Every structure is written in C-alpha cells, then in structure tokens.
Amino acid sequence: MCWYKALTSDFYSGDMFAGQGNAAGRARRASTYFLLAVLMVCVGGGWFLWHHDRVTREVYVATMDLPAYHQITPTDVRRTHVRSAEVPRHATADPNTLVGHYTLAAARRDRPLSLDRLGPRLPVDALSKHLVVGLPASTAEIGGRALGRGDRIRILLSSTSAEEPRNGSVRAIVLDVTPDGKEPGRFVVVCAFPETDEAILLTTGGTARTFLVRVPPTSPP
C-alpha cells in the first residue's frame, strides 16, 4: 500500500504542477498577443497619420496678401495642391466662386480662400477708387429694415448744428453689417463710397445725423 500511495501522490502532484505550467503559459501567450496587438495599432496609426499628411487637395489660394474688403481679380488667385489637413471646409477649386467677390477679412498669401469669408459678387471694379468706412447705426437709422452685404444704399447726412447747418448725400455699397455688441439694436455698417465724396463726409460727419436708405440695385453707382 505504501508504494501505491507514493505513486498516486506523485501522479497528482505532477498534474498540479502541469496545471500550473499550463496556466503560466497561457498568461505568457496572452501577454504576447496583447503586446502584438498594441504594436499593430501603433504601426497602423503611424501609417495612417503619415499617409493622411501626404494627401493633398487642389484648391485656389491667394497669390499675395489680400486686405479685408478687397475685390478679387483673376490675378489674385492661383490653383495649387495643399495638404488636406490645411484645407478649410469651404475652400474651392472653382475660380468662378472667387473672382468678383470680396474678402471679409485679410487673406494670407498661399493660403486657401474660404467661401464663408467672402462677400457677394459685385460688378467689375465696383470697389475701385472707393474708400471703406464703418458707420455706427441703429435700427431706426436704417429704416427699421435689415441691410445685407452687397446692398446699394444712400447715406443721408442731416446736420444738427444750428450755427452752420450742412446736409449731404453719398451713395455707397454695404460690405458688411455686424452687431455693435455694446447696445442692443445698434450695428456697424461697413460701406464703400467713392473717393470723390470724401469731402462730403468730412464736412458733415462731425455734426450730422446719419440715415442709411436702400436704393434699387439698378441705380447708378
């Protein structure tokens, strides 16, 4: 009986050690698989970033630094390849969506032009020999009607000076309308008016009340 007990004891002890060995092996294999999976993810992610960085789109960029409220001409833009990561959402590869429009903010050289940062198309040379000025206005001063980009207006100047009353009228194009931010119902209307009318604004601007009246689009500039 002694030899039987010793044999069975060794047998069960061997099974126990074998089970422990199998568990350790499975743990090592699981760790190896996990490390391989992490390595594959890192390699795949690196390849994706490298490939994504090399992907380009053909869009139109500015050939030079363009100021705000500049009407775009064919010489202001060129078509080129730009890394996709640097292309804004509203960039374009169609020059017809750019030429004739004007910039709402300064545009940098060799950077894609974004359609959401452009004003509407204007007639050729509509802003040539024009000055740009921002006029504070209230809802009452614009006739209670909203003005929009591209609207043609007449700036009526009514003097408040009792000593030397001066009145004037200037035609202009609305380039942008933004809330003043300081007081509800007040706006800043960015207008372009002919250089030849500068004297009228300078003469009456300090003592005049301003009214902005929309005129038909077919009216002469």
Concise overview:
It is built from two helices and seven strands.
Please tag this protein with its features.
alpha+beta; about 25% helix; two-stranded antiparallel ribbon; 3 domains; Type Iii Antifreeze Protein Isoform Hplc 12; single chain; 5-stranded antiparallel beta sheet
What report would you give on this structure?
A hairpin with a 6-residue loop joins strand 5 and strand 6 (186-194). The chain is elongated and about 105 Å long. The strands form two sheets. The chain has a five-stranded antiparallel β-sheet with strand order 3-6-5-4-7. The protein has a two-stranded antiparallel ribbon with strand order 1-2. The N and C termini lie far apart (121 Å). The chain is 27% helix and 27% strand. By secondary structure, it is an alpha+beta fold. It is built from two helices and seven strands.
User: Roughly what is the average pLDDT, rounded to an integer?
Assistant: 79
Question: Structural class per helix/strand content?
Answer: alpha+beta
Q: Which residues form runs of ≥5 with pLDDT under 50?
A: 3-8
Q: How would you name the oligomeric state of the polypeptide chains in this document?
A: single chain
Count of discrete domains:
3
Q: What best-fitting shape do the alpha-carbon axes yield?
A: elongated
- Report the β-strand fraction as a percent range: 25-35%
Number of helices: 2
Give the helix/strand layout.
Layout: H1 2-54, E1 56-62, E2 77-83, E3 130-138, E4 152-159, E5 167-179, E6 186-194, H2 198-204, E7 208-214
Antiparallel strand pairs: 1-2, 3-6, 4-5, 4-7, 5-6
